[in-house]
Structure of Putative basic tail protein:
Amino acid sequence: MELKTIIFLQIAAFMALGIHLVVAGSEVQRKKESPEDGIYVQYCERNCTVKNGGSTGCSNDCKCVFEGHNSQGICISIYYVGEYQDLDYKDPDFIKATPRSPSN
């Protein structure tokens, strides 16, 4: 008798969990991505140092990125060009963000 009760409660719990997952999953609708949406990251050809919560070595349009508690990092620029209806390809910031050809 106890075994049947435990099995019944387990089945009821799994059914409740399954229904909950189906309902919760239906609330989240993912937006379709287009090829034009994206984040562009460019290396600014500089290294940087992190000290006392600030960084040195990067220009104004670049950010210092580092791993963990390492004080040495690299300067990168990050541009998000998604969601813009009228993107100006002649904008100086956009031109700076275009990938550079590799130097030998």
User: Anything to note?
Assistant: The mean pLDDT is 75. Residues 4 and 45 are 68 Å apart (CA to CA). The two ends are 78 Å apart (CA to CA).
